Amino acid sequence: MNYKDLFAEIAVQAAQIENLGEVAAYIPELQRVDPLKFGIHLTTLENENFGVGDYQEKFSIQSIAKVLSLTLAFDLEDDKLWRRVDVEPSGTPFNSLVQLEYEKGIPRNPLINAGALVICDILVSRLKNPKREFIEFVRKIAGNQAINYCQRTADSEKSTGYKNAALINLMKSYGNIHNDIDVVLDFYFHLCSIEMSCQELSQHFLFLAAGGINPLNNEKVISASKSKRINAIMQLCGFYDEAGEFSFRVGLPGKSGVGGGIVAIHPGQYSVAVWSPKLNQKGNSYKGMKILEFFTTRSESSIF
Ligand code: GLN
Q1: Ligand 1 centroid to residue 192 C-alpha, Å
Q2: Going along the chain, which residue ranges are E strands?
Q3: pTM score of the predicted model
């Protein structure tokens, strides 16, 4: 595939797609972002790199970080993890409380807020200094020391995080949260506040395209079997109640965040990240999804 030519086409396409949707407003800090920002970056297993637009600008990766917390918790807990969180698509919004009562505090999957909060609880139990050890784990994956939390975003989310507080309290009542809820929430808000650029994201997530090993520095992040399973969870659960739509239109495992970022993986080939802050009604980047659909259609590189 001649990605260079395709990326030139993507630049034209991106300018033509209407910038519909709304920037996330429920986290005040996210509203400060310029809604016209757009970037995309592809990294292949052979370390070819292609980018267009604001692909070097850092943004709030939000729920994309849930894939990284899942990776660390799965590595530490093995299959014990699945006693506390399931691997089924939710079909409900990312912050929904509805299923949680029916299912007695066991979240549908680790990529919705409830599931990510359980993962955070597990990491709080497992790590001596969760915030520090987690960011060190993230930095080590791609050998990138420049990755950090954004304190302003974490504080901003904390000040309005009523739904997350409701979710964690409900799970605590069912015995599925073992630590102090304020400690777990603080860790969760920090991991959502991590900032990366599209370029950093696509390089970072390459380990999931390469059986758990980052080919850029030969760093083993997770076993091949676990890497495969994380991809399976992303395929079915990475876009909440729009996971079917993303599979149908883009055809890759992926994960979105309310900062407007999306990362998608083609196992054995590449990792691609896109950023456009305006979200559709399901909380996924409007233009980001359209551009990824264009990308996998033109490159004929969906996994199906
Ligand atoms: N920090 C956000 C929240 O908890 C993450 C949601 C998302 O990116 N979908 O609401």
Answers
A1: 7
A2: 22-23, 39-44, 49-53, 59-60, 195-196, 213-214, 219-220, 254-256, 261-266, 270-275, 278-279
A3: 0.97
Specify burial of residue 36 (Cβ count, 10 A radius: 0-12, 13-18, 19+). Answer: exposed
CB of 283 closer than 6 angstroms to any ligand 1 atom? yes
* CA of residue 48 to ligand 1 center, whole Å: 31
Residue 221 identity: V
Cα–Cα–Cα angle for 60, 64, 65, rounded to 5 degrees? 85
Does residue 258 have its Cβ closer than 6 Å to ligand 1? Answer: yes
Summarised one tens digit per residue, pLDDT across range 183-240 is: 999 999 999 999 999 999 999 999 999 999 999 889 899 999 999 999 999 999 999 9
* pLDDT tens sequence across 257-295: 999 999 999 999 999 999 999 999 999 999 999 999 999
Dihedral over alpha carbons 20, 112, 244, 8 (to 10 degrees):
50
CB 279 within 8 A of CB 259: no
Rg over CA atoms, the chain: 18
Decide: 95 in ligand 1 pocket, CB within 6 A: yes
Atom of ligand 1 nearest to the CA of 62: 8
Q: How far does residue 3's CA lie from ligand 1's centre (Å)?
A: 32
pLDDT of residue 45: 96
Alpha-carbon distance of 284 to 20, in angstroms, equals 12
pLDDT at 55 over 90: yes
* CB within 8 Å of 298: residues ≥ 6 apart: 6, 9
